[in-house]
Design goal:
mainly beta, six-stranded mixed beta sheet
Length: 396
């Protein structure tokens, strides 16, 4: 973490003169210098930017805690006192978060009325959309300015492909009853939220169902009856095939069962029919009680069409990890094909749609953009433009 403390401490050594005290802390115009003017001011809502009538004039700070607030004051109490507390960020820092009690960087001064400023001269970033790049969590903040000069940047993270939400840049939740936290930007300072991720494309529709068929053949045996002279035509044999294999079965051949011809079948010659009538569509007098039939039949079944192709993935939103631009969506995948094994009929699903492009800095796409500034009891006092702040500003 590249955080440098830049405050100046006064009266570290030597004699402390009233003239030097006045030059350091100022005085009330038109009045004589008084020791009571340089007590420590422990008030909460003190606007040091307009101190023409503020008294006492020594800010409340951890460094100034030895300065009396009402009595028993002495000049020696001003040793190493400060008039402001400033820190400067440089280089790259990931996801900085402060609380009003922070001691390591702010020496517990965030809730005190000493003027404070954080200059973001480098880059503070988040590489997770669930976190803000720079966050002042819930607490009381007093006389604090967040300054992002030219060259400084606070970047949120871009939303994930598939419609992920972008991440936020700056979060300040000041619960103090006074509104004296401010944000200032240089003309090229940046507080940029992450863009939303692009949605994935819709899958393609499945192909229409298709009717498939397969033809088979098999044999069956039929008894024509005990009466050798019974009239037995084609329809009887065909009905036997249908009875055995279904309504779409057809008779393709018939032959008498050998050795079953009746002795008294006149003129049959052992061929199954009375002489002179024979096959001829199986019409005539049957001389055989049993016949072997060859049947052909077709089975039908419906199968579903090919499944649709999956949609293409969306592009990532522009953010710290993707600063060059939002990601483009990928094309959808081709649909699949189902085919009948025998007839060759087929049906294919439609290809999936392409995924959507991610959003640019602070712009929603499939997912929402992050907040550039999410704040409470905080104002943007300088430098606000479409180039310095990308993304929405919202009150908590």
């Amino acid at each position: 973490m590249a955080i440098n403390k830049t405050q100046t401490k006064y009266f570290s050594s030597g004699e402390i003169k009233f003239s030097a005290i006045r030059d350091t802390f100022g005085d009330l115009a038109g009045t004589n210098v008084s020791a009571s003017d340089y007590l420590r001011n422990a008030g909460d809502d003190v606007d040091w930017s307009d101190d023409s009538n503020i008294t006492p004039r020594v800010p409340n700070a951890t460094e100034n805690e030895n300065v009396a607030t009402s009595s028993n004051w002495s000049t020696s109490q001003l040793r190493d006192s400060i008039v402001e507390y400033n820190i400067t960020q440089s280089g790259n820092d990931e996801e900085l978060e402060f609380a009003d009690t922070n001691a390591s960087q702010w020496n517990s001064n965030l809730s005190k009325n000493v003027p404070k400023r954080m200059d973001v001269e480098g880059v503070v970033y988040a590489n997770e959309t669930s976190k803000y790049a720079l966050k002042f969590s819930q607490g009381e903040y007093n006389n604090l300015t967040i300054n992002v000069p030219d060259g400084g940047a606070i970047y949120g993270e871009g939303g994930a492909a598939g419609g992920g939400n972008g991440g936020g840049a700056l979060y300040i939740e000041n619960t103090a009853s006074y509104d004296n936290v401010s944000i200032t930007l240089g003309s090229n300072g940046r507080i940029w939220a992450g863009g939303g991720g692009g949605n994935s494309g819709n899958p393609g529709n499945s192909g229409s169902s298709i009717s498939c068929s397969s033809t088979s053949s098999a044999g069956t045996q039929v008894n024509s009856g005990m009466n050798a002279e019974r009239y037995w035509n084609y329809s009887v044999a065909a009905a036997a095939c249908r009875s055995a294999y279904g309504n779409n079965a057809k008779l393709v051949n018939a032959a008498p069962v050998a050795g079953t011809v009746r002795n008294r079948c006149r003129g049959s010659g052992g061929i199954g029919f009375r002489r002179g009538q024979g096959w001829n569509g199986l019409s005539g007098y049957s001389c055989n009680p049993s016949w072997n039939l060859d049947c052909s039949f077709t089975n039908y079944n419906n199968i579903g069409g090919g499944s649709g192709g999956s949609g293409g993935s969306g592009g990532v939103g522009q953010g710290f990890s993707n600063q060059g631009g939002p990601g483009a969506g990928n094309p959808g995948n081709s649909g699949n094909t189902n085919s009948c094994a025998n007839s060759g009929a087929s049906s294919s699903g439609n290809p999936g749609n392409s995924g959507g492009t991610g959003g640019t800095w602070g712009v929603s796409a499939g997912g929402s953009a992050g907040f550039a500034i999410k704040k409470k009891s905080t104002s943007v006092n300088q430098g606000l433009s479409v180039n310095t702040v990308k993304g929405s500003i919202s009150n908590i």
